[in-house]
């Protein structure tokens, strides 16, 4: 399956999900191991899977869009989303959500609980969640049978169980130890395209529909110490380790080549697995310094981080990939086995102040070193001027950098249907190089934004922001080749595709720095508070976003052919 059909992700300002950095309680969250192959803006991404954080554990969410790369990480081209976990030291909340689509399918049930424990000098807040969603079917009549029996189009079936703990305790009045941890298990099933009765009548008289399965284990653990009054500085020392493991399987399938050879093929297969991990340790300092002649203090923050990332692919059992492989999702052979890793070190400094009354200026810079793609420098200049109590102007100029993910550099798959096959080749593989692939380079961006903030009434808050984000060497799924070239490249990957009569329906592709783009957009928000006295209050929110992405240039492959078409 395209494992990303189960992934819930967030994106900002018309860019892809992996161009937005996700934090939990201010700490970097690991990404999913499931790479998205679905066509569209998220193709090729391995974003943070928000489905792996129990919703009952979330207190609120903070969003920073302008100049986020220089402060939080060079991969935050579109911005940063910070998920703040609940820290209530008392009380219990129970919730049950149930629903169904109008078509009568997709029945969903979700139960969750959250509670807090007062530890005197600290707290322990716990959450647990169980959710199940049945599959949906959104397909018309199959052109081969004339009946609506091709159930591949629709949402997958999934069951998810997750737990979370958020803890903090003051060792002394100035030093606090804290930890927040999540573990989630998810099992998903997706139905592939129908194989008609002529495919393997000796076993499946009326045809068969392979069922692709995904067993997903995801965890994240953060532990740290923070304090104040260290020579006037506040400080935060933490380490975070997280990872995701996806085990892939197939049920109700067959290996047609193996059946021809033995007459007794397996009907279920272990296809292989993906896994990734991320270990980040960081140390941050901040303080305010009063300076004469300034309208406000200088707020100074600086720090550094070390991150170790790994990504791997493990092969499936041999019946899933020999003799043409399993129907629906060809298994991963030992040739596809991957063990990739890299180290990332970084440092940043952020200075903000009020040089004049009502005028705020923020300067930030960041340096990062990747052991696989080299160095990067990111910077930001941001300013805001409060013209009056009810109106302010703001603007930001910044640049960003996003290294290719380890999955984009190493991912491989072969998806088969009765009439076509699609192979995703690792960009550095022999097959991809034959087709004209070159090693991936980092994406680089330049960001401009300007806006106005209005408070025309005591209960009304309005914002309007325009932005332009130019991304050079954008990583896309390009270089699509078919026919004899695709078959030769697939063979170099240690695989073969059988049973498809039209060679032009067999394609191979790889991730590439295929284009440079420019995204322009406008964000407008409005918030209004209505008070009902002792009965409470209502906050009314309205938001709208307009954006347009233009392709500024298209790159060529090493053989001189364009990497993208219309």
> Sheet with the most strands?
19 strands, mixed
Structural class: mainly beta
Q: Helical percent range?
A: under 10%
Distance between the termini: 26 Å
Give the CATH H-level superfamily. Answer: TonB-dependent receptor, beta-barrel domain
| Reported CATH architecture | Beta Barrel
How would you state the average pLDDT, rounded? 90
Question: Which regions are unreliable across 5 or more consecutive residues at pLDDT < 50?
Answer: none
Counting structural domains, the number is: 1
Per CATH, the class reads Mainly Beta
Order of helices and strands: EEEHEEEEEEEEHEEEEEEHEEHEEHEE
Number of distinct beta strands: 23
- Give the CA-based shape: globular
CATH fold call: Maltoporin, Chain A
Cα Rg: 26 Å
Q: Approximately what portion of the residues adopt beta-strand conformation?
A: over 45%
Number of helices in the DSSP assignment? 5
Characterise this structure:
The model has no long low-confidence stretch (mean pLDDT 90). This protein has a 19-stranded mixed sheet that branches. A four-stranded mixed sheet has the order 2-1-4-3. Helix content is 6%, strand content 55%. It has one domain (3-554): Maltoporin, Chain A. The protein contains five helices and 23 strands. A hairpin with a 4-residue loop joins strand 8 and strand 9 (175-191). It is mainly beta. The longest helix is centred in the C-terminal third of the chain and has 9 residues, at 484-492. The protein has helices at residues 68-72, 256-262, 406-410, 430-435, 484-492; strands spanning 20-24, 27-28, 58-64, 79-85, 92-99, 108-118, 122-133, 157-170, 175-191, 211-230, 233-251, 269-289, 298-315, 338-356, 359-370, 374-388, 391-402, 413-416, 421-424, 443-457, 460-482, 506-531, 537-554.
């Amino acid at each position: 399956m395209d494992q990303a059909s189960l992934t819930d992700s967030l994106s900002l300002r018309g860019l892809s999900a992996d161009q937005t950095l996700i934090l939990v309680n201010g700490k970097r969250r690991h990404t999913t191991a499931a790479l998205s192959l679905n066509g569209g803006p998220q193709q090729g991404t391995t974003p943070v899977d928000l489905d792996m954080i129990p919703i009952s554990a979330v207190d609120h969410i903070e969003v920073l869009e302008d100049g986020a790369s220089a402060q939080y990480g060079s991969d935050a081209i579109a911005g940063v989303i910070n998920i703040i976990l609940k820290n209530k030291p008392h009380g219990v909340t129970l919730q049950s959500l149930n629903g169904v689509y109008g078509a009568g399918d997709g029945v969903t049930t979700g139960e969750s609980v959250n509670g807090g424990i007062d530890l005197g000098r600290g707290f322990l807040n716990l959450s647990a969640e169980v959710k199940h969603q049945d599959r949906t079917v959104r397909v018309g009549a199959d052109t081969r049978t004339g009946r609506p029996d091709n159930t591949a189009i629709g949402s997958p079936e999934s069951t998810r169980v997750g737990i979370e703990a958020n803890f903090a305790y003051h060792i002394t009045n100035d030093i606090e130890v804290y930890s927040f941890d999540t573990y989630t298990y998810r099992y998903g099933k997706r139905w592939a395209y129908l194989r008609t009765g002529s495919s393997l009548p000796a076993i499946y008289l009326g045809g068969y529909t392979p069922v692709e399965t995904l067993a997903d284990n995801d965890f994240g653990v953060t532990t740290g110490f923070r304090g104040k009054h260290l020579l006037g500085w506040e400080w935060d020392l933490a380490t975070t380790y997280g990872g995701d493991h996806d085990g892939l399987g197939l049920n109700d399938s067959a290996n047609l080549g193996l059946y021809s050879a033995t007459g007794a093929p397996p009907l279920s297969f272990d296809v292989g697995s993906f896994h990734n991990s991320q270990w980040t340790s960081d140390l941050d300092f901040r303080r305010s310094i009063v300076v004469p002649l300034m309208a406000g203090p200088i707020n100074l923050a600086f720090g550094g981080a070390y991150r170790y990332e790994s990504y791997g692919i493990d092969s499936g059992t041999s019946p899933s990939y020999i003799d043409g492989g399993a129907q629906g999702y060809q298994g991963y052979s030992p040739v596809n086995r991957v063990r990739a890793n890299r180290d990332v070190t970084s440092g940043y400094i952020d200075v903000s102040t009020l040089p004049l009354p009502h005028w705020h200026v923020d300067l930030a810079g960041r340096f990062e070193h990747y052991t696989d793609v080299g160095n990067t420098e990111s910077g930001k200049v941001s300013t805001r001027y409060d013209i009056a109590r009810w109106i302010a102007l703001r603007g930001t100029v910044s640049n960003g950098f996003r290294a290719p993910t380890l999955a984009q550099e190493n991912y491989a798959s072969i998806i088969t249907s009765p009439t076509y096959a699609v192979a995703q080749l690792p960009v550095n593989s022999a097959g991809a190089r034959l087709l004209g692939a070159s090693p991936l380079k980092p994406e680089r961006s330049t960001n401009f934004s300007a806006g106005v903030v209005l408070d025309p009434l005591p209960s009304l808050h309005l914002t309007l922001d325009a932005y332009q984000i130019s991304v050079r060497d954008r990583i896309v799924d390009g270089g699509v080749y078919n026919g004899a070239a695709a078959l030769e490249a697939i063979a170099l990957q240690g695989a073969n595709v059988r049973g498809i009569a039209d060679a032009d329906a067999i394609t191979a592709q790889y991730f590439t720095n295929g284009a440079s783009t420019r995204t322009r957009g406008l964000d407008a928000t409005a918030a209004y508070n209505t008070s009902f006295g002792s009965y409470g209050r209502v906050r009314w929110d309205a938001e709208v976003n307009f954006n347009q992405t233009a392709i500024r240039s298209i790159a060529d492959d090493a053989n001189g052919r364009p990497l993208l078409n219309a």
